[in-house]
# Entry
Amino acid sequence: MSDQAIVPDRQQQLPIYAKAHISSAIRFLRQGLPRTGIDNDQARLVIGFYCLATLDILDALESASSESEKEGWRSWIWAQQIRGIWGSGFRGSPGAATNQPASSEYDPPFLIMTYAALLSLAILRDPLTQLDREGLRKYLKISQREDGSFKLFPTSEEYDLRMTYCAFSICSMLDDWSSINIPSAVTFIQSCRTYEGGYGQEPNNEAHGGSTYCALASLHLVPPSSNYAGSSALLTPAQHAQTTRWLLHCQDASETGGGFAGRTNKVQDACYCFWCGASLDILGMAQVVNADANASFLLECQFRFGGIRKDRVSNPDPYHTYLALASLNILSKDTTNPPFEEALDPLWNARASTQLWLKQRLHATPATAAPA
Ligand SMILES: [Zn+2]
# Structure
């Protein structure tokens, strides 16, 4: 059955099935991956992050989980911190190592897992005193390639804008950019720009919603003290207009649409409602999105018994669940449905109080207001 075969009646917008999504996220955290998800075992940390972020964005972590449970999750995440010849960072699960204990060249940290670990620990309100900052700085330095891009893990040949975004986010969380070469990294980001106005994962790749988000968020994370700060210095007015136009064209304007596609001439998919929607928010253009149509599509992607799907017919998963909620949060600010407690920061992809928690624990000059 195709997605388009289901013609929604949009006279009345669906409610958000928050209770069901909370139950689904908690079930994943308590029971782990289903047998069919065993291929994703090495990415357990990032899957856990999407579940925790779902609870955080729905303001449900406190009510849905016990103190001892949260302590168990914090301990498990810290057990993934690697200290070795590559410096220090996080792996996705014990299964990501090819030998034990975790200290050899065969047990490397991953940038994506390190980004997810820091945010997860902040959601769980961990004091972050166990973080090996010196080791993390060494790892960031080792991860950067000569062309400015960043490697998936230290011995990997794989590099793309996802890793650049994670490295920039980690530097921003630490408020310490001393271990990376910003000008070189910015040059790499610029080299991924395409004729359409979006960004590919690497130079000469097709424009893609996910990598466009990674590029724009990275450029906007560069600190004000750097010569590379601010979109005006990085995107010319003509580039800004071209990128905005391409992103807006990714939104499906048909009667059963409203969602965003990740590439030109592809079908709408819930995760791109975040990647493209947050990109437009970063560019200061969220107000020109058809937010009601986007919300209608995402709410139709909900599975009644918990979780959100990439479309109206696939199975739900933690990744699409969280990113759909994040898109609703960012683009539906002026509506009452759904009523999120707090706005989401589009650059870190974190709720405001979670972001503040990290800043207060990791920044040399901490933010002033204390979160409750
Ligand atoms: Zn998707």
